[in-house]
Design brief:
about 375 residues; mainly alpha; about 60% helix; globular; disordered N terminus
């Protein structure tokens, strides 16, 4: 995507650009790389906004005339990426307006698609990948996730109807919604559903339609989910954990305590096994990631295990405070180019060091932990 003044290789492609915009393209590359780093490494979505403002200002002040096709294409792609990252920033920090941005870029891609080398995957965690801003499936999924997380049931159902004109919205149509969300027309009966689709499906059932589900349908839902879990749960760990969270909620709602406890214990063992087998880096004495701790804390809270939930929320809180302090430390060392507000928390150690946990204030309740973690965990975790 990014052109240069001389012929240089970028992956498998070559890009050429006149010298007068070399500085601009390099600035844009650095800004986009910073956005991707923020999302992939620390999930500090609020920190995206000053960078995106800088990108928009840079292109707004450009005196460069769009007198050639590649210039038009370049500006369109940068604009799309800016819109995509801004929508994610709004969504993950619980702001309104993300749905309008998602709808706008979906419409743009449907009617005037921009060509990009799309990395095809269905992982929930890889939102920072540049190709996501050009993949219709990902953009549609992001819109549906946002609507469910924000309790926009009307918007969710209206958009679902654009994906399947035959769906009945006047009453809960379990079969058709399941078919759409899990893409059963593609996977048929092999239960090879993408983890992120399963996570969205369980979340929709719990947040919008739990009162429409009877005991018989609950058993059908549980059986389908259990068959998927046996074969494909490790394809996307975070999506698997999120689906467990909502399956536990549903099980508790129907008084299926044995299933709920079994789901929770199984996912705990599975996460520990996955982190060990994959050689995931540990933070201090915490072998899981912050997201895994957060979701497990939510699950334990649903089971009434408040003390365990508090412990896991605290681990997520420590890890995320470290990530925030690391980013702020990095910004300070590099002139704080994006003007990110720096907190007064004293970072101890180097950027690869640690936080003195004894010096950290400890939130007094689950509600307080969730408020502290909200900038990192909203949108797909609610």
């Amino acid at each position: 995507m990014l052109p240069y003044t001389t012929e240089r290789r970028w992956g498998e492609h070559k890009f050429i650009a006149p010298k007068e915009i070399d500085i601009i393209t390099k600035k844009v590359y650095c800004m986009l790389d910073a956005c991707r780093s923020i999302i992939d490494n620390s999930q500090l979505y609020g920190s995206l906004l000053p960078i995106l403002d800088a990108i928009d200002e840079l292109f707004g002040d450009m005196s460069l005339s769009l007198d050639s096709p590649w210039k038009v294409e370049y500006v369109k792609k940068i604009s799309r990426l800016s819109q995509w990252y801004r929508a994610l920033a709004y969504a993950f920090t619980g702001r309104s307006g993300a749905d309008d941005i998602f709808k706008a870029i979906i419409e743009q891609q449907e009617w005037n698609p921009l060509v990009y080398d799309i990395k095809k995957d269905c992982y929930m965690a890889e939102w920072g990948e540049l190709s996501k801003a050009f993949d219709l499936d990902t953009m549609r999924y992001a819109l549906l996730q946002y609507c469910v997380s924000m309790d926009y049931q009307d918007v969710y159902e209206q958009y679902l109807q654009t994906l399947c004109l035959n769906i009945t919205l006047s009453e809960f149509d379990y079969e058709r919604q399941t078919s759409i969300l899990l893409k059963q027309h593609i996977h048929k009966k092999d239960y090879c559903y993408a983890g992120r689709d399963v996570a969205l499906w369980t979340k929709v059932l719990w947040k919008f339609y739990v009162d429409e589900i009877d005991q018989s349908l609950w058993n059908e839902i549980a059986t389908l989910w259990e068959k998927w879990r046996e074969v494909h749960c490790f394809d996307d760990l975070y999506a698997y954990q999120i689906s467990v969270k909502y399956m536990v909620n549903l099980a508790m709602h129907f008084g299926d305590i044995q299933r709920a406890e079994c789901y929770k214990q199984t996912v705990s063992d599975d996460v520990s096994t996955f982190m060990h087998d994959m050689g995931m880096p540990e933070f201090g004495n915490y072998p899981w990631t912050a997201i895994s701790y957060y979701i497990m804390a939510d699950t334990n809270q649903s089971l009434g295990l408040v003390e365990q939930a508090m412990e896991e929320f605290h681990k997520a809180y420590i890890i995320k405070t470290h990530a925030k302090s690391s980013w702020e430390f990095y910004e300070q060392c590099n002139g704080n180019a994006w003007q990110i507000p720096i907190s007064r928390f004293e970072y101890r150690g180097t950027i690869f060091g640690y936080i003195g946990c004894a010096d950290m204030s400890k939130p007094s309740s689950i509600k307080a932990y969730k408020q502290a973690l909200a900038p990192y965990m909203t949108y797909i975790m609610d």
